[in-house]
């Protein structure tokens, strides 16, 4: 029976987390996940002001759909692209 937050903390302190590894750094860069700058630029150039399907953007940029999705996320964070429902994306205007 839990009556106070201390009851929950007491149970958590008694648990053993020996099989759990420490979390990796949240923002550590790994070379296998970094996208080449030229690929991001090609995807940005393939964008239109009108929504386009992700696979069409990827094909125009010579990228895989996974690379295109990752680049679009970076472009959206930078304010250069907009992703829309249904696998569509457009250039931010």
Major sheet strand order: 1-3-2
Mean residue pLDDT: 87
* Low-confidence sequence ranges: none
Q: What overall geometry do the principal axes of the alpha carbons give?
A: elongated
Task: Bin the strand percentage.
Answer: 5-15%
Supply the helix-strand structural class: mainly alpha
Q: How far apart are the first and last residues' alpha carbons, in Å? A: 56 Å
Note down, in words, how this protein is organized.
- With 93 residues, the protein is mainly alpha-helical.
- The protein has helices at 5-14, 37-46, 54-61, 65-77; strands at residues 52-53, 81-84, 88-91.
- A hairpin with a 3-residue loop joins strand 2 (81-84) and strand 3.
- 15% of the residues are buried.
Question: What is shown here, in short?
Answer:
This protein is mainly alpha-helical. The chain has a domain at 51-93.
Short key terms for the protein model shown above:
93 residues; 4 helices; mainly alpha; 44% helix; 3-stranded antiparallel sheet; elongated; 11% strand
Strand and helix layout:
Elements (H helix, E strand, L loop, with lengths): L4 H10 L22 H10 L5 E2 H8 L3 H13 L3 E4 L3 E4 L2
Antiparallel strand pairs: 1-3, 2-3
Helix pairs in contact: 2-3, 2-4, 3-4
């Amino acid at each position: 029976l839990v009556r106070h937050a201390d009851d929950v903390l007491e149970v958590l302190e008694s648990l053993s987390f020996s099989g759990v590894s420490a979390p990796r750094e949240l923002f550590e860069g790994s070379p296998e996940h970094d996208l080449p700058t030229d690929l991001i630029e090609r995807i940005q150039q393939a964008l239109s002001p009108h929504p386009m399907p992700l696979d069409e953007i990827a094909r125009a940029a010579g990228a895989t759909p996974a690379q295109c999705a990752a680049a679009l996320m970076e472009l959206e964070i930078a304010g250069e692209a907009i992703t829309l429902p249904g696998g569509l994306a457009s250039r931010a205007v």
